[in-house]
Known about the structure:
This protein has 1048 residues and is an alpha+beta fold. The chain contains 20 helices and 48 strands. Keywords: Hydrolase, Membrane, Protein phosphatase, Receptor, Signal.
Amino acid sequence: MSSSSLNIDIPKPANYIKEVMVIVQSASKNPTLSKYIRTTDLKPYQTNTHDPYATAYLKVNDLPLTFVIGDGKEYHSEKVTYLNQPLKQNSSYIVFLRFFESQDSYYSTEWSNDVKTLAKPPAPVILKIISTGLKTYTISWFQPPLPDQQTVVMRYHAIYRVSNGPSETLNVSKEMTSIVIDVEFDKQYTFEIQVVTEAERSDVTSESWFSHSAPLEPAKKTDDGYTVKLRKPQGVRKIKTVALVLLLSKSSNFPAPEELNVQKSPPADDKTDNVAFIASEFNITEFQSDTVEISLRESRSSGRRKKRAVEVYTLAPNATYRTAQLDTDESGNRIWSYWSESFTFLKAGDNGGDDNKGGGTDNVDNGDPDKRNDGGNGEGSPFAAVGASVGVAVIIVASILAVIFFRRRTNKRSKDKEIVLNENYYEMRGIDSGDGEDNVVPDDDLPNGNNDMIYSNGIGDIDEKAHPPVPMEEFEHYVSELKVDSNYEFQREYDDLPKNTRTSWEVAKRPFNKKKNRYGNIATYDHCRVVLSGDENKDYINASYIDGIKSNSYIATQGPTKLTVNDMWRMVWEQHSYSIVMVTSLVELNRPKCEKYWPDKGSKKYGDIEVTLMKTEEFAYHVTHTLQLKKDGEEREVRHYYFHSWPDHGVPKYPTQLLAFRRHYRTHHMEQSGPIVVHCSAGVGRTGVFLAIDTILDKFEKGVINSIDVFGQVCAMRERRMHMVQTLEQYIFVHEAILETILCGMNEVDSIKLEKEIEILAEINACGMTGFQKKFKRLGEVSTNLSPDECIAGSLDENYHKNRNKDVLPAENNRVPLQYVYGVENSDYINAVFVNGYLGRNYFIATQSPLPNTINDFWRLVHSQKSSTIVLLNNVKDRTSFPKFWPTTRGQPTQYDRLTVQLDSETESNGIRTRQFILSSYPDLTDGQVVNIFHYTKWPDHRVPANGSDVIALTSLVENSRMNHGQGPIIVACSDGAGRTGTYIAISNLLERMKIEQAMDVFQAIKIIRETRPQFVENAVLATFSTAFGSEPEPVAGTHVDPRWRNA
């Protein structure tokens, strides 16, 4: 039941009844008795519902147990079409049924009791849209009370889009009253939201706004102040005035510009926090160039202050400011830039009451640990910095002592107990602590107190007997026990990890070394730090040796800063390291995480080492750079493995991708080289995760161990580098990665051994199963399934008819959204998902063969994704549920909604029919794109093709098409977009890997794509086919399915 429909139960008719009519009328006190109403008087549609009308005519064989009155569908008798018209909301109706043996022979039920449709729920009220970051906005809303009949909010349906751009559907649960969205600078955005109850959805609430423009350039220091440049506004908006706004802010927790009440002059009390005022204002006509430079100086008497002078006297001594540009248009609308980096105006020589006037020091703080002043650049007075820092230092020391005292008194067990100090610090400074990795204090706050007091876990020596190694065959059960009661035992075991080995780190505390630490509480222990050549002023780098199978097998280090990039390459050269593993992005959540330390192309000098980029190989989840290092005439080759798929928050959803990355790096790593360099940002969280996994698996693969000791491995790493494996979530992830490897086994096969491996797998074992069937059974056990909450759009009633197979729905995190058609609800939905290829992310789109009602959507998909290549693996026939979805007459354009498609050519070879089309958004095919459809019709559903070489030839045609006509995703379709589609994608990925690495792993290839769509490669026959023909580097004439495994 909804606001426009009612559900009625239909009683079982007599055996002789052939048809049933449903009659509806608005509720009335004295309706005409149903038996006196003539059938000929019942209209098939009625605007005046106070008169009875027929809303449906049903064959008894089509009779449902429950019928929905008002569903908007049409029902047909031999001569009349009946419209089951939607009902009015919050209105009462009565219903009766008429059962026909023939037109002249029938009986009727009595009128029902009054039944009332629901009132439509009120739409959410958008409260505010404010910027909460450099490129983020928070949208909050309020949900008015629901009507009496509706008590449950199921969820919210929300979208946002940039002007003239695609829309994005947001996953908004019923508990949420706000959401954070990402934006670009200076764009118009629209946000739409409606509430969905158990029976109905509200109207849409919509609001548009312009995002703020980019921050002004950082203020530049002069002898007696700072200079700031305003920008001349660009675009179509009619700007009237441009103002420089200063925010007097003592903390990093500053408000959004649009929330401020901007004053016309500086506050009288410069100790006031988060007060904004206009420093200078211009009429747009006063801009003679693209910028206006304003000089900010120390405040003087109001009589000397000029509102529009180039020199503005507004700065108060020892005050911290941020700048923003405020444009006001002719209608009074405000357009802000985001806040710039902060700067503090300190009078030169200011030290405990010294009134000597002069220039300030440059103290910049934008929440970025890398950009905080460490006093080591030689500018300004060191005494001024000391004087200004005394208060802060006292607060920090007091906070540290309070935390230590509290932790020792309570001995509290906490999820992230080892970083309580860091979280408190960030909370005090108003800085988001991020994703749990690198939750560390900035580099100018390295504690100078007793090491043991700060970093000790307070539990004494490690009791390794408390968590002994687990035999390999018991590890699955062991992990399951740790996960019971919301990971309770995992939490206990993680809390038992040591926080420090009570060793010294004196070298890291030296003043000239502190600035080389990216984060203040991630330093190196003296006994295992990597020592660079040179004197003590040059030998420090934040890097630690970590043991593997051999002593010092690895080096764990931080992501280089601008100051330490050269040191990074010195270390790689001096340690003879030939492999670098990077598990962080350069920027995450708008924060720098690592300085780029390799050239994009050509060569670049880093100190006395020249680094040349020789080759870049891009894959779905990582990039490999082959680099040549040159120093003093000697040349070396280093491979840089960059895993760019670690999410900004937490850990990867599944370990499969990271394990595939590890196998890739292990394949190319030279065992005889120096230590493997591994880094993230701080060099402890993700670095610790990767090292724990790689070390344990390396020992396992080489037969060194027959039991698993994750706890012991992390303990050993923490004895050499603090905070390794930084959160409980990371600790659990290490176990899951090891467990997946144990369960899935070693499935990688070199090309030269593949034929023999296929023969072995085709043999039937004592249980009556082939090796293929056994592996496929295991694959099903370790593959994941999607929950209904992950397939929101596909499960909506409005979209259900767009799905062929109701069990094959796209997950929200990888479904392909169509461009939203304004006013057409759910017009962004099509049953299609992005699938990663071996050669890149979103390399494929998997979708179903279009339904009659989704043909227009399919061409919208092709156009919006700029796809040049389509693979179709099922037969089609007009006037069926698998219609032809393309024009069949050459040179004759056909309209598909707003798109025009024209058949250009058609050929056939090896059972593959190739059709080339021109697709354009213009009727005259202006700016048309070439689209090739490769139609292979000899692949039966749920089975395999008789001639495997056809599929190999098909992959070759497809890759050539993508290479020649566009780099958009390859669209692969079959009946439901799962079985044959997944098998084709798996084979394509296996072939590409075979070409590059001369090895393949069918098990992992299928498991990885199943993370996108669990129904991919639906049976062992298709998996077997992937194995055999994923091994063929080129088409082989006359290759047929081997009878030994055709029915595997």
